[in-house]
Amino acid sequence: MNHPRRGQAIIINNKDFDKHTGMNTRRGTDLDANNLYRIFSKLGFETKVFDNLPCRKILSVLQLAAREDHADVDCFACAILSHGEEGVIYGTDGHMEVTEITKPFRGDRCPGLVGKPKLFFLQACRGNEFDHGVDMPDALPEVQDELDAGNKATLPAEADFLLAYSTVPGYYSWRNPGRGSWYIQALCAVLEREGTELEIMQLLTRVNKLVAYDFHSNSDNPYMNRKKQIPCIMSMLTKDLFLSPKSQ
Predict the structure, then answer these.
(1) Where does the signal peptide begin and end (predicted)?
(2) Is 82 within 8 Å of 93 (Cβ atoms)?
(3) Has residue 48 been placed in a domain?
(4) What pLDDT score does 211 carry?
(5) If the chain, 248 residues long, is cut into consecutive pieces of 10 residues, what is the mean pLDDT of each piece?
(6) How far is CA 74 from CA 14, 36, 112, 200, 230, in A?
(7) 180 lies in some domain
């Protein structure tokens, strides 16, 4: 990517939710947001964090970002940390379709990003199934893990989108209150170690392996103990994406 600027990275970090939603506080999400901010900034993104946004404000933030001048940028990135179900993500006041999040960046709405990668990282549940997995030697977390807890997902057909989900359709996504979510921990570790060297799909494949092999749940509830998780990559990219360092 040879434009003067890397581009924007928007992080939406929803921790506390309106009482009527019935959603629990997402303990540990601030760690995820801080780590993502550090890694995205290190990779050259102009990074902004927004905390505890209702649905309407999420749309407003993304619409404003889409309307900015992207002529001299490589790409756009957005990470949403929240509760979710299959096909939906939660604002602090209720849920919204994932397609509403990507819509402002379609080619017919955001001409400055036509032909440029638009990366969305979604840390949220996509259903209520557990992945029982198989027993294997993993490091147990010191703190019990929690869930980012369906409707079929509608995927964007437009080119140059990449949606990186923390889990596959129908399944829970795990978060540790003391360390952050499994997926964001793994994503940040891989991006920090190899983010400027490997192509984005290689990076996300390594994230998949790290989550699959190195994490399992730790809970006093036997039904929720030693469960597994595998992230899911939906790519409509039309070219390789390397986040190589910008020349000074």
Answers:
(1) none
(2) no
(3) yes
(4) 92
(5) 93 96 92 98 98 98 97 98 92 96 94 95 76 41 54 54 91 85 96 98 97 84 81 95 88
(6) 27, 19, 10, 13, 29
(7) yes
Q: Is 3 one of the catalytic residues?
A: no
CATH number at residue 218: 3.40.50.1460
pTM reported for the whole predicted model:
0.87
Q: Residue 193: in which H helix or E strand, if any? A: helix 182-194
Cα 54 to its chain centre, rounded Å, is: 18
In the DSSP assignment, the letter for residue 112 is: G
Contact 186, 139 (CB under 8 A): no
Length of the chain: 248
* Token pair belonging to 243: 């986040």
Query: What is the distance between the alpha carbons of residues 31 and 16, in angstroms, rounded to a whole number?
Result: 14
Establish whether 55 is a catalytic residue. Answer: no
Catalytic residue (choose from 70, 75, 83, 216): 83
Q: Is 217 exposed, middle or buried (0-12, 13-18, 19+ CB in 10 A)?
A: buried
Q: Are 90 and 14 in contact (CB under 8 A)?
A: yes
